Amino acid sequence: MGVRARLALLPALLLLAGADEPQLVPDVSQRDVEIQYSFTGADLLLFGAIAYPDGRKPDKPADIVVVLKGPEQSITMREKQKVAGIWVNADSARFESAPSFYAMASSRPIGQIVDERTAAIYELGVDKLQLSPSSLNESAELKRFQAGLVDLRERAGLFVERPGAVEITDGLLYRARLPLSARVIVGDYTAETFLVQDGRVVAAAVRDITVRKSGFERFMAVAAEQWSFFYGLTAIAVAFGMGWAAGAIARRI
Questions:
Q1: Rounded to two decimals, what is the model's pTM?
Q2: Which CATH number fits domain 3-212: 1.20.1250.20, 2.60.40.1930, 3.90.1150.10, 3.40.109.10?
Q3: For residue 6, what pLDDT is reported?
Q4: Helix (DSSP H) and strand (DSSP E) numbers for the chain
């Protein structure tokens, strides 16, 4: 963390020093992320400070967990089966609240910081996400479909876990870098920070991040949403024109 960032945190630390419980003063390097045609992802720095009551640090160092989460989506997972040499849809499961993006970093592996129950309450880890299944599948089937969803999004860079990636300096300042995939959707994101002592979450704080399109991509998105009829006509006209031009070129070759 740079000198300017440290100095910017000092006033907040002085105000919180007299609190009865530890407090977090978090921030993020980018509050607005703009997506253009050349967008290849972003590397976000989540940093901040821990303000202890009367400025006294505990004898045992605390842990920090940061979670970057995107808008929730409804998604249906389908399982493919080969029947008579043809791949067809078989079983399926629907999840009502799957995060479109999830990235977590911690000062140590989560299993060494909190127990299973606490991790599930705060959704610390991709295997602890509450996806709200709406189907009546058996528990074993739901776990299989959830594992499939996690695997697909991990391979796409949309689910990320980085244990040990949070650096804590002097027991007061922390920082971590989390990648924002080029495949993220636009919307409101949250950067959550958790302070953990003796396996218990003693403080939490949230910062909001907005991911939006800009430039020509933003114009096209707004046009599709606000002038859908004319957007559709234009798309048809462009497709027709490109088809006619391709045919004309082919006839001359």
A1: 0.74
A2: 2.60.40.1930
A3: 43
A4: 6, 12
